[in-house]
Write a structure and sequence with these properties.
Number of domains: 1
Largest sheet: 5 strands, mixed, barrel
Radius of gyration: 16 Å
Strand content: 35-45%
Helix content: 25-40%
Shape: globular
Distance between the termini: 53 Å
Order of helices and strands: HEHEEEE
Number of strands: 5
Length: 104
C-alpha cells in the first residue's frame, strides 16, 4: 500500500510539471542579472562566465522582468551573454532545460 501511494505521488509530481515550452531571453548569471556594470563594464559573456566560475553564481535565463535559474549549469556557458531560446518546463523559479539554441 505504501509503495502504491509513493508511486502515485511521484506520478502526480511529474504530471504537474506540464509540457515543455520555449522561453526567449539572454543567458546571464543570477548575481549580475544582465547588468554587468558592477563588474567594471566587461562584456556580458566574459562577466557571466567569470561570475559563475569564481563567484559561485548560477546561469539564468533573463527575459524582460523574469529570471529563471537553469537546471543545466554546463551547457549555458557557450551561450553566455547571448540571446537564446530555451526549451523546457518551469518548476517555480527553475527552468528544467531540454535544449538551448542561439537566436540570430
Amino acid at each position: 500500500m505504501k509503495k502504491c501511494a509513493l508511486l502515485l505521488s511521484a506520478a502526480f509530481a511529474c504530471a504537474g510539471a506540464g509540457p515543455a515550452n520555449q522561453y526567449k531571453g539572454v543567458i546571464t548569471d543570477d548575481m549580475c542579472a544582465g547588468d554587468h556594470k558592477m563588474m567594471g563594464g566587461t562584456d556580458a559573456a566574459k562577466c557571466t562566465v567569470e561570475c559563475v566560475k569564481s563567484m559561485h553564481s548560477k546561469y539564468v535565463l533573463k527575459s524582460g522582468r523574469n529570471t529563471w535559474i537553469l537546471s543545466d549549469q554546463t551547457t549555458p556557458e557557450k551561450f553566455a551573454g547571448r540571446n537564446v531560446i530555451v526549451t523546457g518546463t518551469l518548476n517555480g523559479k527553475q527552468l528544467q532545460v531540454s535544449s538551448i539554441t542561439a537566436t540570430p
